Amino acid sequence: MDDKAVLISVFQTAVAAADPMRFIARNLPPRPQGRVLVIGAGKASARMAEAVEAEWGPCEGLVITRYGHARPTQGIRIVEAAHPVPDMSGVAATQQMLDFLGGLTADDLVLALISGGASALLCKRAGAMTLQEKQAVNAALLQSGAPIEQMNLLRKHLSGVKGGQLAAAAAPAQVVALLISDVPGDDPAMIGSGPTVGDPSTPAEAMAVAERWGIPLPPSAHKVLAGPTGVVPPDDPRLSRVQNHVVAAPAQSLAAAADDARKAGFEVRILGDDLAGEAREVARDHAGRALAAQAERTPADPPLLILSGGELTVTRRGDGVGGPNAEYALALALALQGAQGIHAIACDTDGVDGAAEVAGATVSPDTLARARAAGVDADAALARNDAHSFFAAIGDQVVTGPTLTNVNDFRAILIRPAE
């Protein structure tokens, strides 16, 4: 197996470790005798619903997932909507979900299945905001380079369903939320903008996020943030019967990949599962680490695999097609400058890097040489945030299709001693 194939294999191991079919059943509470309503949103939510019914049988419910991510279910209705910018399908399905939650009793159980992507898929406009205004704010956030916790703070206060509001709508029923984490630190309040988790932040803090990251807000959004929003404080009585459980996280996937690599004879170092920052800057740092590690190794040493996860960001400067994983890979290739013996992969575990239907890309010692031969300028591609086009031109994109899970970025650098 060549080094590119090794890297793709460890990525596939990481994705497989986060398949809801592997862990949802053991995290389910006993099915009660009374009414059970299954709700959810996110890129993994349909697969989570499928796993629930594999254990419990047909259930009543509604789950919203990204277009192309639906799964066959027995009773739970699956609705597909747009991500990362919401659309009317998500708006309509969210309202239907809230309608289902009305009139529940203390004897009822709501099982909420939440994964990354829920921020866009669960969409209820706050105040007089229009869908077009919500879309514009969301698009601006995605291009701003803001870290996910900052984006989600603003999203919560401009929403009628995030920041604990979904769970509050189910009161007085018991709510058990199973969460797949795609955020650094695995904070339940940040996963999908915390629809089942209370939040102590204020509208003023949300406004500060918009100002800090240069997010233009329409007058309707200013009006929402001028007074109390719907975000639910953690001590609100409506959340007293809510339990939130993180059932899968990036650390588990990195550990699975590391175990496989060690069994194959590799030395493994894990930099962390919660790395954040500008993709190109993190790539330059990782290139320096890789070159330094290679310089220390002897021919007798086993190959070294450096793993990391988390969520990197891209501040959009150009008009290209890219995402944080592809941009990381391109910046890494430029920093390595064809160093022999070093290969890498950077992919999003949901199979979607940015807004492209591409998981990410691989890097080899001949990446830049092949690009030059194809007439592709790597520096120009990075300058205009066009990493996906760059890797498409040289055949180094990783395309998986929907993986039906989402534990965020996966990066691996494979280092062999220099010859």
How would you describe what is shown here?
The longest helix has 18 residues, at 279-296. Strands 7, 8, 9, 10, 11, 12 and 13 form a 7-stranded mixed beta sheet that branches. The two termini are 19 Å apart. The protein has 419 residues and is α/β, with parallel strands linked by helices. The protein has helices spanning 3-17, 24-27, 45-56, 88-101, 118-121, 131-144, 148-157, 165-170, 203-212, 219-225, 250-263, 279-296, 324-336, 367-373, 378-383, 387-394, and strands spanning 36-41, 60-66, 77-81, 109-115, 174-180, 242-248, 267-270, 275-278, 304-313, 342-348, 360-363, 397-398, 409-415. The relative contact order is 0.14.
Fraction in beta strands: 15-25%
Order of helices and strands: HHEHEEHEHHHHEHHEHEEHEHEEHHHEE
Number of helices: 16
What structural class do you assign from the helix and strand content? alpha/beta
Radius of gyration (Å): 22 Å
How many distinct beta strands?
13
* Low-confidence region ranges: none
Q: Which of globular, elongated, flat, extended, rod-shaped describes the shape?
A: globular
How much helix is in the residues? 25-40%
What is the mean pLDDT? Answer: 96
Largest sheet: 7 strands, mixed
Distance between the termini: 19 Å
